[in-house]
Each structure stands twice: as C-alpha cells, then as structure tokens.
Amino acid sequence: MKVNIYTRRITVEDAKKNAIEKKVSRLGKFFDDSAEANVVVSEQRDRKIVEITIFSGDMIYRAEHRDAELLNAVDENVEAIERQIRKNKTRLAKRLRTGLDLSAPDAFPDIDGEQAESDITIVRTKTHHIKPMSPEEAVLQMNLVDHEFYVFLNSETDRTAIVYRRKQGDYGLIDVE
Fold first, then answer.
1. Same structural domain, 55 and 27
2. What range defines the domain where residue 82 resides?
3. Would you say 166 and 177 are in contact if contact means Cβ atoms under 8 Å apart?
4. pLDDT tens-digit map of 93-142
C-alpha cells in the first residue's frame, strides 16, 4: 500500500512522518498493493488534525481525529478504519485482497459474521419530489425541515444536487452527474 503524507499549516519532522507511515502501513494487510492511503495533517488551535483516506478499488475508507498529540490522532484513525473493516467484513470480503481469509475465526475474534450483516436495517422509506431551486434555497429548505442534507434539482445546472451540513457548521454541495 502506498502512503502519501500531506501537511497544511504545520511542519512535521521526518521522524514523525516515518512513524505515521509505519502506523498507516499496518492497514496494508487488509488491501492489495494497488491501495493508496492519503494522510493529511493540519493544526488548529494547538490541536493536530489527522485525516486518513484509503482508496482501494472502488471502496473508500476515511477517518478524521483531533488530538493534542499527532501520533495519538494517527492511532485513533487507524483503529477507526480497522473498526470499519471489521463491521463490514462480510460485505467487503469479496473486494479485499483474496489472500486474506476474513472468514477465519481468529481474523476478527470480537465480531461475528451474522452481526455485521444484520446491522443494516431500513426502517423508513420516503418519496421526495425533486423541485428546481438554487443551492441557497435548498439550504433554507433543509434548515426548515431540520435535516442534515437536502436533495433538489439545481436550477443553475439542471442536474440533481445535494446540499448538506458539515461538521464545522458550514454547508457543502454535491452535484450529481
């Protein structure tokens, strides 16, 4: 697995970069050689923010943590991605490298295969009529219904789009092709 480390508004010593690469490379046992991990390190108010995104085939794994210590945030991210893989192991087994036997009882002793599949239950289905509007109008509608996202027809592009509320409190726009 290839590991790329990027920094924003922070300087990271080579020793810490090597430690980050070593910790993230532990996840390589779950992926084939074509997988790529992007690690973005930034700083905000004396806290280190570490975002790890792993691209493997058509799957994307992502985790982001903040901590006063850089390597603690990296450890939390690696554990979070391992949890994602464990939780979804039965569905991901076909996509992960074939040499790794995820069905072996000792591969993940704390998760049972049936539990991972039964975690997904659709409890409600809604029909939504998509109306043409601007992204600003869609944000207002989203706030009116107190949702985290809103699907609409973007009147500026005539394509389906989604506005969503980000963790930072601002908004994002996804344009669907």
1. yes
2. 2-118
3. no
4. 655 554 454 444 444 544 444 444 556 788 888 888 888 999 999 998 88
